[in-house]
């Protein structure tokens, strides 16, 4: 199956940051994006677990609450929009898992990642709450991202805290606690012999990649564990170079990782 992606220029923030403090604004921002997609007869593909959660939850609530739907559409009418329902929201990883045949992915593989041991971090919002995601994966034993990473030939490793939060939601309130939560997972990955960590959420990447040096400094340890988005891992296997994959933007450098794959960093 071919998937065609179309940019919607008027999309705004999904509303997730507003959820804890202003539920009304959260629902309205999400509904605005859903209405834009519906206007163009599109479903939505997201690259962030929090965006997935926000838009999916709003669509779920609107489909079950006629009063909420009416209130939101009264506001949306001021900008010429209306949301009737039916837009499907799926994370990029889920879309690949459900719509692309494994053999089709394998035909694109140009570089075997069999030298790598990769840990997968699912995070909180990729699968939860499960009822709004149609239980597409098992929240107690998730496998969808493991499956996609394994298509590259890489060895997906298990570790004790695989299902644990990255600590990011606590960061604005208690930085030390947030960092210690992230540290626990980094410790476990180091003990499990991981060469890299796979994530599917930018906020999780902030905790494990962006803050890894700060964690090392605070606790006097060294991880040097590259943190890669799923598309970066798939892209490596497909033969894309480091510039195409944006690897130079990663905080924890990937030079050693690339060398293990026989790639000379530019």
Assign the CATH class of the largest domain. Alpha Beta
The computed structural class is alpha/beta
Number of helices: 11
According to CATH, the fold-level topology of the largest domain is Rossmann fold
The total beta strand count reads: 6
Mean pLDDT: 95
Query: What is the straight-line distance between the termini?
Result: 35 Å
Number of domains: 2
Write down the overall geometry.
globular
Q: Mind summarizing the main beta sheet? A: 4 strands, parallel
Report low-confidence residues grouped into runs of 5 or more: none
Percent of residues in beta strands = 5-15%
- What would you say the CATH architecture of the largest domain is? 3-Layer(aba) Sandwich
Q: Strand order across the biggest sheet?
A: 4-3-5-6
Helix/strand layout:
Layout: H1 23-39, E1 44-46, H2 49-64, H3 66-76, E2 89-91, H4 92-99, H5 102-106, E3 117-120, H6 144-150, E4 155-157, H7 175-192, E5 196-199, H8 202-210, H9 212-219, E6 227-229, H10 230-237, H11 255-260
Parallel strand pairs: 1-2, 3-4, 3-5, 5-6
Helix pairs in contact: 1-2, 1-3, 4-6
List the defining traits of the structure above:
Glutathione S-transferase Yfyf (Class Pi), Chain A, domain 2, Rossmann fold, 2 domains, four-stranded parallel β-sheet, globular
Structure description:
This protein is of the alpha/beta class. It folds into two domains: 16-91, Glutathione S-transferase Yfyf (Class Pi), Chain A, domain 2, CATH 1.20.1050; 101-260, 3-Layer(aba) Sandwich (Rossmann fold), CATH 3.40.50.11810. The protein contains eleven helices and six strands. The strands form two sheets. Strands 4-3-5-6 form a four-stranded parallel sheet, sandwiched between helices. It has a two-stranded parallel ribbon with strand order 1-2. Helix 1 packs across helix 2 (49-64) and helix 4 packs across helix 6 (144-150).
């Amino acid at each position: 199956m071919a998937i065609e992606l179309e940019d919607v220029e008027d999309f705004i923030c999904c509303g997730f940051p507003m959820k804890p403090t202003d539920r009304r604004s959260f629902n309205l921002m999400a509904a605005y994006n859903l209405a834009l997609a519906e206007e163009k007869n599109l479903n939505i593909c997201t690259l962030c677990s929090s965006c997935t959660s926000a838009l999916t939850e709003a669509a779920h609530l609107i489909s079950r609450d006629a009063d909420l739907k009416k209130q939101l559409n009264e506001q949306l009418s001021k900008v010429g929009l209306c949301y009737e329902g039916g837009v499907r929201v799926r994370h990029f990883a889920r879309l690949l898992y459900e719509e692309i045949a494994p053999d089709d992915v394998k035909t694109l593989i140009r570089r075997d990642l069999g030298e790598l041991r990769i840990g997968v971090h699912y995070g909180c919002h990729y699968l939860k709450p499960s009822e709004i995601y149609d239980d597409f994966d098992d929240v107690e034993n998730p496998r969808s991202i493991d499956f996609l990473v394994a298509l590259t030939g890489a060895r997906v490793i298990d570790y004790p805290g695989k299902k644990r939060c990255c600590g990011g939601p606590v960061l604005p309130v208690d930085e030390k606690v947030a960092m210690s939560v992230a540290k626990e997972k980094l410790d476990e990955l180091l003990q499990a012999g991981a060469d890299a960590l796979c994530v599917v959420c930018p906020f999780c990447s902030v905790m494990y990649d962006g803050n890894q040096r700060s964690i090392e400094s605070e606790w006097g340890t060294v991880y040097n564990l590259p943190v890669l988005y799923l598309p970066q891992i798939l892209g490596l296997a497909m033969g894309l170079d480091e510039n195409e994959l944006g690897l130079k933007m990663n905080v924890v450098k990937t030079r050693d990782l690339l060398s293990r794959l026989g790639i000379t960093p530019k």
